[in-house]
Amino acid sequence: MTEPEKGKKASSSWINVAVDYGPLLVFLGVYRWFAPEQAEPIGDLAAVIKGTMAFMVAAVVALAISKWRLGKVSPMLWFSTALIVGFGALTVFFGDPVFVQLKPTIIYTVFGVALLVGVWRKRALLQILLEAAFEGLRQEGWLKLSRNWGVFFLLLALLNEGMRANMTFEGWLWAKLWVFLPLTFLFTFSQIPMLLKHGLTIEGVDEETRNPPPA
Q1: pTM of the entire structure?
Q2: Is residue 173 scored above 60 in pLDDT?
Q3: Rounded CA separation 193/22 (Å)
Q4: Angle, to 10 degrees, between the axis of helix 139-166 and the axis of helix 181-190?
Q5: pLDDT in tens, 79-110
């Protein structure tokens, strides 16, 4: 791989991370800016509303940046943005932060069930989503990867519900960064030994596949 190609891949990788997690950082930053020092367990409602509106705008901007800089928008990003805008609008309309907190649960559950149903039908849906990102990976490897991610997504959905029910709104927001993000990165890299056993070559790992799914 030439130096320009390496630079382009590294740039794309950082753009992916910014697109996936930038809106969440905007949400957290706006919420903290407007929230009082001592907020109720659900968070200061005015700060939640303002943070949610900023979250919605940032998500749409991130989608546009993905299309502009990468030339494409992944199905995951389309789905995530639609839920952010939809559930964000419900949060603003009803003045209830539970809607925006439910968004990750729905995303993880839908992806998890879809992947596991695909494995049950002997179809590796991740292969469709990631296309040629994992060069050399055999069909058995794709099926195992889809199965493992399906189970992991369902566990994340349960974890999100547990944290939503037992943490303050701000605590839940911070957990999105300091719990979900590290767990997802660790899980992503934990799959590499299995993938190597099923034909993957390190040179064939596309930088985009090292980024976790949207939060």
Answers
A1: 0.78
A2: yes
A3: 30
A4: 160
A5: 889 999 999 999 999 988 899 999 999 999 99
Instruction: Determine how many CB atoms are found less than 10 A away from the CB of residue 106.
Output: 16
For the chain, the C-alpha Rg in angstroms (whole number) is 18
Residue appearing with tokens 């050399």? 136
Beta carbons of 124 and 140 less than 8 angstroms apart: no
- State the CB neighbour count (10 A cutoff) for residue 199: 16
Q: Where is pLDDT greater, at 10 or 24?
A: 24
Structure tokens at 168: 């303050």
Q: What is the pLDDT of residue 215?
A: 58
| Count of C-beta atoms within a 10 Å radius of residue 20 | 21
- Euclidean distance between CA atoms 22 and 35, whole angstroms: 20
> What pLDDT sits at residue 168?
86
Q: Tokens 């706006």 map to which residue?
A: 30
Number of CB atoms found within 10 A of residue 204's CB: 15
Rounded to whole angstroms, how far apart are CA atoms 202 and 6?
A: 14
pLDDT at 10: 45
d(CA 138, CA 119): 14
Contacting residues for 116 by C-beta, under 8 A, at least 6 apart: 146, 147, 150, 151, 154
Q: Is residue 76 within 8 Å of 70, Cβ to Cβ?
A: no
